[in-house]
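Subject: Sanity check before I submit

Could someone independently write out the structure tokens for this chain? I want to compare against mine line by line before I put it in a report. The sequence has 135 residues.
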Amino acid sequence: MIDTRKGQVSLEYLMTYGIAIAIVVIAIAALYSMGVFNPSSSAMPCSPCFSSFAYVDYADGELMIKNGPRALENVYCNVTGGTCNIDSFALVNLSANQQFKITLGNKTEQNVPLTLSYTDALSGLPHTDIATIHN
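---
Independent answer below. Compare away.
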């Protein structure tokens, strides 16, 4: 009679460690795709950024952000100790997923609190969103 248990034990050993190594590789790939290993992705110019708008870009006092899936009316920005313009207008309406630029008047301050006030076009409810811009 031939004993085949040695082959089964070695196959179980390889499968156990192979699955463990595959899980570690998948976890590292997921962390890499989220930008954990990229130090430049953690240097955000706003912290915290807006909750209802997506950050796009910031350079030389001009913040580019994108509206979410809802249309907004009467969008107004306010900066403590300076001026704020949304695409050269003081009061604007934004369609869903529209990118827009906010120009800050005070580019020299270190931390600039920025407030966006708007009305949801669908519900008619007013909202306020706050972020701090780091120059």
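---
OP: Matches mine. For the report I'm noting this point. The beta strands are 53-59, 62-67, 72-79, 84-86, 92-94, 99-104, 111-120, 126-134.
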